[in-house]
Amino acid sequence: MMKSLIVLFSLLFAAVASAPLQAAGRFEGVTLIHMVQAGAAQRLAGYRTFAREFQAATGAQVLFVETPWEQMQDQMMSDFIGRAGSYDVFDVDEAWDANIRAYLQTLDPYVAGSGFDIDDYRGLNGLLGLDPGARRRYGIPLTGRSMVLFYRADVLAAAGIAPPRNWDELIAAARAVTTKKFHGIVAAGVNVQLNKYFFSAYKAGERRSLFSADGRPQFGGEEGARALDRLKQLFAYAPPGVFAMDIAEADQVFLNGEAAFLLEWPDYIQPNLDDPKKSRIVGKWAAMQPPGPGGYAGWHLAASGYSEHKDAAWAWIEFVTSARNAKRLMVEHGIYATRSSVLADPEVATRFPGIDAVRAAAAASFRPGFEGHPKGIGWFVQAGAIWSEALTGQMTSQQAARSAATLWSKLFDSMPGPANHDYSDIDALQ
């Protein structure tokens, strides 16, 4: 009897001892192909570090295919339609979801089977990679943020001006502090960046939707024109040439101490604000949610429904989006986390001054519904050019609002969108 127990114990011990080795090599010989956004250098740097660790742990190699943002959706669709399975994992901009989610692997069984803490994603973060109708999860949230209003706290305090709570107060504050050598506002003014300001000025404090549920534009009349008038008034206090400035140029004006306000995606400017090698306003700035809600820009990781390595693809997604690695991506590479636990982490708060404003802006943001149409991105790009013509005096605000609405209707009617898609905006869930 004792001998039998010893033999049984030995066998159990051997099994337990060998389990980590079996787990470590469970995907030996597997190569995963992960499509990533070209130019997202910090995100890719983090991925490459994780890939080395993942290969050491599982045996699977991860290779990255860098693809320009504007080509990613088309290349995914080509692979899906041809059932090629050339890619295993994708970085997915949520704007493409309505068009590609039918081809992505359902992840609910993997989430349930692994005990993955999906409840750590809340509000709009929790909607990333989730089909709201079918309640099917096809992606795991990766990163996201909304526009933030940065401002010179010292300048406003000296002028006796409180941080603006609405568009009228922002315009008045920008006017009050503008001088010949100091600008009230700066923001990236190239065409594609103008949409986020229009959306904010249009929605203002009213939470009105850009489109109806059936896809009809709501901004073609008085409210759309009023939004453009607000932007005209605000940009009157911007530097000359502002409509030729992209993100880097606008950020530099603020970092140089030459403007009182900056409307910006926080991850572009925040790492530099308190760096004395890059900023002349160290300790002089503050941040808050903008006077109108911004669109939420979110990304998730997804696996192809045609991948031959679905289990390994899930293991890689789970590894990258774990709480530990989500924090590493944020702290080491500036990639904003979508996990509530990471955003509330004291170390993150210390490393990212102004993170409270980032959270507040996200909580007040919205998810545009128009992006679900195949022509949605095309309209977005062309609409920016229309707003630019209005803001530079080439057409009236009324003409621009009507023109953008007409353009949408033409594109919308030229191609059917996803069945039963709701084009109205989704406000952030508190």
Helix-strand blueprint:
Layout: H1 2-24, E1 31-37, H2 41-58, E2 61-67, H3 69-81, E3 89-93, H4 97-100, H5 108-114, H6 124-127, E4 130-131, E5 136-137, E6 139-145, E7 148-152, H7 153-159, H8 167-177, E8 183-187, H9 194-203, H10 222-235, H11 247-255, E9 259-264, H12 266-273, E10 285-288, E11 297-303, H13 310-320, H14 323-333, H15 340-343, H16 346-351, H17 355-363, E12 366-367, H18 376-391, H19 397-414, E13 426-427
Parallel strand pairs: 1-2, 1-3, 8-9
Antiparallel strand pairs: 3-11, 4-5, 6-11, 7-9, 7-10, 12-13
Helix pairs in contact: 2-14, 9-10, 10-19, 11-12, 18-19
In short:
Helix content is 47%, strand content 14%.
Arrangement of strands in the largest sheet:
2-1-3-11-6
Runs in which pLDDT lies below 50 for 5 or more consecutive residues are 1-22
Taking all residues together, what is the mean pLDDT?
91
Q: What distance lies between the first and last C-alpha atoms, to the nearest angstrom?
A: 63 Å
Radius of gyration: 24 Å
* Proportion in helices: 40-55%
Q: Find the structural class using helix and strand composition.
A: alpha/beta
Globally, the shape reads globular
Instruction: Compute the number of strand runs.
Output: 13
Bin the strand percentage. 5-15%
Total helix count? 19
Q: Major sheet: size, sense and barrel closure?
A: 5 strands, mixed
